[in-house]
Amino acid sequence: MEEIVISEKDIKSLKWIKLPFLGCTAKFLGRNEDTGTCGFLIKMEPGAELPQHGHPSIEQCLGLKGEIEIKGKKYGPGSYFINPPANEHGPFKAGTNGWMAYITFDGPTGVEEMEEMVGIPTIKK
Prior knowledge:
The protein is built from two helices and nine strands; from the N terminus they run H-E-E-E-E-E-E-E-E-H-E. By secondary structure, the chain is mainly β. Strands 1, 2, 3, 4, 5, 6, 7, 8 and 9 form a nine-stranded mixed beta sheet that branches. The protein is globular and about 45 Å long. The chain starts with 7 loop residues before the first helix and ends with a strand.
């Protein structure tokens, strides 16, 4: 198994994929085919919302730009959260300048069919 290294130029050229929530897109960066572990960028336009939801594995999120509101409290760049498996979290609402974050999962995300559609770099045995 080999590592995947993607330059900032290559990351910029990857497509933003529309999520099934108005004003929300994702850019998948890499995935381990065996475990489902993955990393991606999420971008929410100003005022965009993600409903309450859960995932089958641990999710970690690091805010990069903008502001997001979670349970009535606002968080900016550098904010971090870790969410245990199957824990319902959200809703989330992007601030007036939107929100961008880097998100990782230690296993399946629950949206693998979306990852497969975009042909993200994948580690295989």
